[in-house]
Amino acid sequence: MRTKHAGxxxxxxxxxxxxxxxxxxxxxAQQRLSPQEAMIAKRHAIEKQLEEVAIIxxxxxxxxxxxxxxxxxxxxxxxxxxxVPIIFVRTPYNFNFWDVKLGAPRDxxxxxxxxxxxxxxxxxxxxxxxxxEGNYEILGAPITDGSxxxxxxxxxxxxxxxxxxxxxxxxxxxxxxxxxxxxPGFTTFNAQGFGAGVGRVGPYYxxxxxxxxxxxxxxxxxxxxxxxxQVRPMLPPDATQEERIRTSKMFDLAPQMPPxxxxxxxxxxxxxxxxxxxxxxxxxxxTVMPVPTGGNMVARTPNDPAWYKGxxxxxxxxxxxxxxxxxxxxxxxxxxxxxxxxxxxxxASKKIxxxxxxxxxxxxxxxxxxxxxxxxxxxxxxxxxxxxxESLLYGWFDHFLKGEDNGILEKQPKVxxxxxxxxxxxxxxxxxxxxxxxxxxxFSSKGKANTLYxxxxxxxxxxxxxxxxxxxxxPANPVPTFGGGGCCQGNAVTFGSFDQSAHETRSDILVYDxxxxxxxxxxxxxxxxxxxxxxxxxxxDFTFKMIDVHPDGxxxxxxxxxxxxxxxxxxxxxxxxxxxxxxxxxxxxxIDISNYFKPGHKLRIAVSxxxxxxxxxxxxxxxxxxxETEMVVARNVIHHDSEHPSxxxxxxxxxxxxx
Length: 659
Fold this sequence. Notes:
Blueprint: E1 7-10, E2 13-16, H1 17-23, H2 29-32, H3 35-53, E3 54-63, E4 69-77, E5 84-91, E6 98-99, E7 104-105, H4 109-116, E8 120-125, H5 144-154, E9 159-168, H6 175-179, E10 186-192, E11 200-201, E12 204-205, E13 211-212, E14 215-216, H7 219-225, H8 241-248, H9 262-265, H10 274-277, E15 323-330, H11 335-347, H12 350-353, E16 356-364, E17 376-377, E18 380-381, H13 389-402, H14 408-411, E19 415-419, E20 424-428, E21 437-444, E22 457-459, E23 469-473, E24 510-513, E25 521-535, E26 541-549, E27 555-564, E28 584-587, E29 591-597, E30 602-608, E31 634-639, E32 647-653
Parallel strand pairs: 5-8, 5-9, 9-10, 10-15, 15-16, 16-19
Antiparallel strand pairs: 1-2, 3-4, 4-8, 6-7, 11-12, 13-14, 17-18, 19-20, 21-22, 21-32, 23-31, 24-30, 25-28, 25-29, 25-31, 25-32, 26-27, 26-30
């Protein structure tokens, strides 16, 4: 049902009556309306619609069990027939209703849509941010804050006692740990791009995207630069709600961080001082803090006990609620997310296990709804990757929060994934897809696999004789990150898929290709690389990129991985060191992808020892790395013969499956 407005429409934008009258009488009013004026007018119009249909309760301070209060804005339908379910958005980010820079309301479209659909929409800031009290801890710890928020919402007289959470990135990553507490009112969850909320699961010890293969993912350095604001302005505890609302139209309490050239800042050593070196505040990154995990994150190892004290979910915490999981191939990490999804399907009660659904899109971090008819991921056109996420999400909530028998669980496949290369959505009941098998290719060369002009190959049988490939890894001259999956690294990295050919002329990159495929092959599922390596260093890293080489020679990256050698025997075991020139077997953690290699295309694996600043540099000393400034150049070697069968194992899906 349309809402009537007192005003007019210009270029599809509803103009409030006051502005409409000011513009009346001018034949050129539309031309004179600047983009910013049009946006302001649209914002006011949406706010007006919201006021017409919603009971609005802003800057409500919700008490936690320790007495601290979290700030919430609440929007619920006027004239609701009975009690209403709640869509809950909990976030560390700014949701202030007033855009203080623009001098107008922020875009309230999501709030308006939820209310029109019969939901209360509740937004809440995590502890220690904006108008919420207490000290900030990543993922909004303690997790009891989440439980206290659920209990408070479901106890309101207008609530039907059912809450569904939604959000992407940090607005999703707190969900799993809180869901595992099994609070009665927390009915279902929709986690999108949620990798930084996944701690240990199966073989993965990423601890919320902090590590990959034991190497640090550097994205959190610049992200925490703007988040760990322990010293910040706050309103007096006795400020009234009216005062908080009025003040928030002048001060949204958002930090305005000085700009940083992260393409230079990430090079600073020691690594632990990077935020300090750019004038950032002390906080959980590098400082011991009075928070559940204790802070000082940079000093932790992959199985440090601190990881299990905060807001991260791990595989010891049972999830027994219906879940709708959104993931993407070019996110920071997708494999731990898929492992978490599979773990819940394996450990929840049968009914709940059957109520876990996943969508895996071909996009960058949280870019689900930005797909177009010609979706570009970097320079790679992946086709029409659009999907109606809103209809799926509201169909899900209507079923679980309103009790509607709308057939959503029957219509939606358990796993819907997008195949790169073929550029189409496919359906399956499991991940990896039903019917998938594995096949391996072996690293081969005559000892000169350096650069794309070398003699490296991927073959179906291992070499009879070991003619190893070697390169020098100099931490002062690492292989620069060029594309890939990721997030949040400022001007230092542009993520996505790009032609890697120019970078593959470096002598510290070993390149191994298959012959062109005579028939197309769909690789959908885990990709596992095993290398037999030696080094002159006590500790070093090895990296690889998986690449689709087109007939014209352009080489588009699909996924990447890294392994720090000290953790090759496990992240829950003491570190192990390398003896000079001794050969060691190292298996990277499985990394997932879905790509169709068309006839005439080749699979390429590019091996090196760095991918910076996507991952931190191993300084090759065998020391702590994060507190060091000295570095060692390492001679690193890949061995490949029947005794040392370095290989890549692919998950292959038969043609026609999932169509």
